[in-house]
Amino acid sequence: MMKRMYVAPSLLAADFSNLGREVDRIAQADFLHIDIMDGRFVPNLSMGPQVISALRGRSELLFDVHLMLEHPLPYVEVFRHAGADVISFHMECADDPGALIAAIKQSGAKAGIAVKPATPVERLLPYLGELYMVTVMTVEPGFGGQKLMPGPLEKVKKLKEQSPGLLVEVDGGVNRETLALCRDAGVDVLVAGTAIFRAENPSEEIAFLRGSSSF
Ligand SMILES: O=C(CO)[C@@H](O)[C@H](O)COP(=O)(O)O
């Protein structure tokens, strides 16, 4: 039987003039992936906690908040309060990953770490036992609509070998064409922005990416 994957539409690709309606269109997904960018760690700005608070009452999806921020510690409580269920920070800019994980858990959220395409998976190994999710970036973070880099998928295989119960998410360039590569690598959660929000029928796209077996 085909592996069933969770689907996390990335809000970055939504129509920002009507975010409430956009969230309604993807109600069948599992997570809502929300990219928070600071213009420093990545060369782009996106949205803040107000957007999350505004959408929280509108959606029952798990809010998967991806912090692309330098020095994210002071923001953990802010994003949890706004409605984040999962909070991930980037390994590359974590001053003290252990303290960040502890702060996220203390806030009541589930903890995740994201890694850029060139960051070795070995840097994550000491923390795997403390994590709910690892996000393997398959594009350079900062912008949606890029092409998936297959190289980082090797990290997914290693992570699943090391920690079979950990949720491993891939982020960047996920669509119908790259789906098989992700599935073969053992991915659990697919982040897809362009493929879902720019589709005529996002529900159909979610069902296709998810695979056939039931939740
Ligand atoms: O974090 C990012 C980009 O930095 C991603 O979440 C993208 O938003 C995914 O978009 P697509 O590649 O699916 O369009």
Automatic annotation (TrEMBL):
The gene is rpe. This is Ribulose-phosphate 3-epimerase. It catalyses: D-ribulose 5-phosphate = D-xylulose 5-phosphate. It comes from Neglectibacter timonensis. Gene3D superfamilies: Aldolase class I. CDD domains: RPE (cd00429). Its EC number is 5.1.3.1. Transmembrane segments: none annotated. Belongs to the ribulose-phosphate 3-epimerase family. Catalyzes the reversible epimerization of D-ribulose 5-phosphate to D-xylulose 5-phosphate. One of its GO terms (molecular function) is D-ribulose-phosphate 3-epimerase activity. It comes from the Bacteria. A divalent metal cation binds at H33, D35, H66, D171. The active site is at D35, D171.
